[in-house]
Structures are given as structure tokens and as C-alpha cells.
From TrEMBL:
GO terms for cellular component: cytosol. This is Chemotaxis protein CheW. One of its GO terms (biological process) is signal transduction. Residues 1-141 form the CheW-like domain. It holds the Pfam family CheW. SUPFAM superfamilies: CheW-like. PROSITE patterns: CHEW. InterPro entries: CheW (IPR039315), CheW-like_dom_sf (IPR036061), CheW-lke_dom (IPR002545).
Length: 154
């Protein structure tokens, strides 16, 4: 399995390439008032407002450092109802693509966060899978992907 490897603090994580649409450079984000801390803001991608989640904050760490290698990873977020939405993930220290043998992946034995999956070790340490489909709790998903209100202006 091919993973895009990035860091949260000193720890390495990987997103399966199959869920990634694009990897974008860091860009200005519009704040969402009263949104939870894990929401970094909205990005404007060709006129579309796309929510961006800070993976560091979602993982319980301080906000992602804004470095030259911090990226916004645009993924296909598959909601429980089957709907697919564009979702940006703010990822610190994106290292590139790494090939991980599926058989080398093992259960971590720790259920700290529902979006974290199996782990694999190599010479650089441990890399843990991130499953974007489990990243958003129900209330946050409803906030970010609420149906647009109908315009009733005459």
C-alpha cells in the first residue's frame, strides 16, 4: 500500500494514496467562527469553499506548525451515508510517498482515536495509518457539510 507520510509532532502517520485527490501548498484559510479547534478554516479552491481540518489538533497535539513542508492534503471524505465530500487535511512535515507492505501492518493495540489505524515499523520508526472517513464526529460533520440553505429572496 502506498502512503503519503507526514508528521504530528515527532510521530509519523500515513494517508493511503487511494483517498487523496491532490496535495496543495499551504494557503490562506478563512476562519470559521465558533468552530472547534481542530477546524483550521475554509480554503478557496477554484471558487469552492472546502473545510480544512488540522490533523495535529485532531490528534491531540498543538496546532500544526506552518512550515515550508506543511501541506493541505485534499481527500475524498466518505460520510457514513455514502456521500463523498472534498475535505482538506492540514498535514505538518509532509515527507513524501512510502510503500508499506499490507502484511507488515499490525494492530497497535491502542484505541486512542477512531481515525487512527494499524501501524508498521521500519528503519525510521513507526508509521500509523490515518483513516479520513473516521476523522469527523457526527456534530462536526453536520457543521462542515450542512446542506446549503435555499435562497428565498424574491
Amino acid at each position: 500500500m502506498k502512503l503519503l507520510v507526514f508528521h504530528i509532532g515527532a510521530d509519523r502517520y500515513g494517508l493511503p494514496l487511494a483517498v487523496i485527490r491532490r496535495v496543495l501548498p499551504l494557503m490562506a484559510l478563512k476562519a470559521i467562527p465558533l468552530a472547534p479547534g481542530s477546524v483550521a478554516g475554509l480554503m478557496n479552491l477554484h471558487g469552492a469553499a472546502i473545510p480544512v481540518i488540522d490533523l495535529s489538533r485532531s490528534g491531540g497535539a498543538p496546532a500544526a506548525a506552518l512550515r515550508v513542508d506543511t501541506r493541505i492534503v485534499l481527500v475524498d471524505y466518505r460520510a457514513p451515508d455514502g456521500a463523498v465530500h472534498a475535505l482538506g487535511l492540514l498535514a505538518e512535515r509532509v515527507m513524501g510517498v512510502q510503500d508499506v507492505d499490507d502484511e507488515a501492518l499490525a494492530d497497535s493495540g491502542v484505541q486512542a482515536a477512531p481515525f487512527l489505524g494499524r501501524v508498521a515499523g521500519d528503519a525510521a520508526g513507526i508509521v500509523q495509518l490515518v483513516h479520513p472517513e473516521h476523522l469527523l464526529p457526527d456534530a462536526l460533520r453536520a457543521l462542515l457539510f450542512a446542506p446549503a440553505p435555499m435562497d428565498t429572496t424574491p
